Amino acid sequence: MAVIRERRQTARFHYDGEITIERPFTRSRKTNARLVDFSIQGLCILSQKAFTPGTDLMVRISMENYRHISSDADCQPPTMGLVTVKWCEDGTWQGRPCHKIGAMNLVPY
Q: Do β-strands 42-47 and 56-61 pair in parallel, antiparallel, or remain unpaired?
């Protein structure tokens, strides 16, 4: 497995919450996933489905579990956004196999 180098130049904020992923402008089904962390530049997501680098995705955070990060943070979790998958690697979450995905925000917020 390749080692992923840190490329974000802004602070990461850890976040454990449910999100929905879908490919915009397609008839693909929505995929439930978990948001691991985020920054102004991007997101780290755990998903049962793998996505190829270069794939554009629409991500939505469940408002039921939405929580604000501390007020000194320079950003808050996005409730919705467009991202591009930069990398995807095999991983585990709660003892089950999953895919760990790094994605870059297409539209800064």
A: unpaired
For residue 2, what pLDDT is reported?
52
pTM: 0.80
Condensed to tens digits (0 to 9), the pLDDT of residues 36-68 reads 888 888 899 999 999 999 999 999 887 665 566
Q: What angle do CA 68, 107, 21 make, to 5 degrees?
A: 70
CATH of domain 13-105: 2.40.10.220
Domain ranges of the chain: 13-105
26: Cβ contacts below 8 Å, ≥ 6 apart: none
User: What is the phi-psi region of residue 65: left when phi exceeds 0, alpha when psi lies from -120 to 50, beta otherwise?
Assistant: alpha
